[in-house]
Write a structure and sequence with these properties.
Largest sheet: 8 strands, antiparallel
Bound molecules: flavin-adenine dinucleotide
Radius of gyration: 23 Å
Helix content: 25-40%
Amino acid sequence: MLPPDYLTQRSIAAPERSQHERHLGHLRGLRERLAGSVVSKADAGWGRARLAWNLAADQRPPLVAYPETIVDVVELVSFARARALRLVPQGTGHGAVPLGAIEDGMLVTTSRLRELVIDPGQRRARVGAGVTWGEVQAAAARHGLAGLAGTSPDVGVVGYTLGGGLGWMARRYGLACNSVLAFDVVTADGRPLRVDHEHEPDLFWALRGGGGSFVIVTALEFALYPVRELYAGALFWPQERAAEILPAWQAWAAGVPDSVTSVGRLLNVPQSSEMPERLRGRSFVLVEAACLATEDEGVELLRALRDHEPEIDTFAMLPPTGLGDLHMDPVGPVPAFIDGWLLADLPPAAIDTFVAAAGPGSRSPLLSVELRHLGAGLADAAPEHGAMASLDAGFATATYSVVPDTDKAMAVGRHAATLRAALAPWEAERNYPNFAERSFDLADLFSPEACERLCRVKAQYDPGNLIQASHPVPVAQPSPSAP
Ligand SMILES: Cc1cc2nc3c(=O)[nH]c(=O)nc-3n(C[C@H](O)[C@H](O)[C@H](O)COP(=O)(O)OP(=O)(O)OC[C@H]3O[C@@H](n4cnc5c(N)ncnc54)[C@H](O)[C@@H]3O)c2cc1C
């Protein structure tokens, strides 16, 4: 599918000019009908409009649209359908890399869908598709409530939730997608729909963890939980102690209740003035955790880890908004390499392998490699859950690095691949899409039954494959016997 001439920057030959002018007329008409706006490749603002949060994503869509209302989204769908342009919904662009260049698509940036309502009585939130987790947590905290945010306050609620949603309270309350109560969407044939357990139940199932392939989500409603404070923070040791600390963390994690969600991590802090001076340029092994507990309970919970005498200890009672700083995720757009996969288990041999491949002495260029403890509430697949009903794995790995140039990106990519290959004996059967910034077969993410159902939902709601997602669900499942 090639972009029409009026959407490209190439100069237009005389015989084509009248067609070009007609197309420009269509774009003018679209702009007049929208409350929001559209930036085309020919406009001065395109260079900025095309950028995702992850600056490593080289997005080159001929059009970038900023809808402000549901009616705008309906208009955009109808415009794109009539011109065989793919529709690419995007909140922040944290998950943009797998989308590629989008040269045949219209990027639908939802950042102006700003609705944010907290209903403290019903303990629920309603957010527009442009709202980020930091905004939700700040609004919910005023009522002593919290949503199931991940580590970064910058991440969009919708994209995170469509891909599962693994946060700091995950072992108690599960994946964020399974706390969703309703979606407002616009379908690929331009119909606004309310989607919940009673309305469009198959689509409701698919959207809860099955990704953004089916419809454009305009708003989301989800449960909030009564959390005023948590005992949370990080313990830092010099990375040379990784072979002692990570096994101690693993043994500790095996015994903690579901109120504790923790991460074991290797961190190579850049030599940057943006970093706190005491961390700058140093390598650490860390344990980060959030405990739904009082201070006394938290101190008791952490005792076995503190026996290892950390160099830095940041644990304290925090409001849920404080969790946004705990993992030290980057704020603002950066060129990033992100990858991750699930491990069925983490026996001592797996930890040895992890430390040998990414720890001191490995000359690892990876800024951060982490192991998130799963299980408990994440392992419970209730019948009412969505497509990602649970995570059937003991641990999730995630690796993150800033990659300002191609050489660095190649070095980081190679090292991450080596680490993954080394840990292959312990890799779980399925992967977790939110942590994997690359293309996947659907079968790597979901069971055969779930794959089949997701493809059926895609065929029902978007048979023409108008909507392009970071982790796409195909209209039809490839037959195993196909060449
Ligand atoms: C620094 C950092 C920290 C992270 N921490 C966590 C974490 O703790 N836990 C976790 O689970 N994940 C985490 N992630 C991964 C993150 O959840 C995914 O990248 C997620 O896809 C980001 O959602 P977004 O809306 O911000 O990004 P986007 O790139 O805007 O969206 C990702 C995809 O979601 C779909 N989508 C978005 N909006 C819509 C819409 N309105 N309608 C239809 N489809 C839509 C599209 O397919 C889109 O390509 C982290 C990522 C980064 C970079």
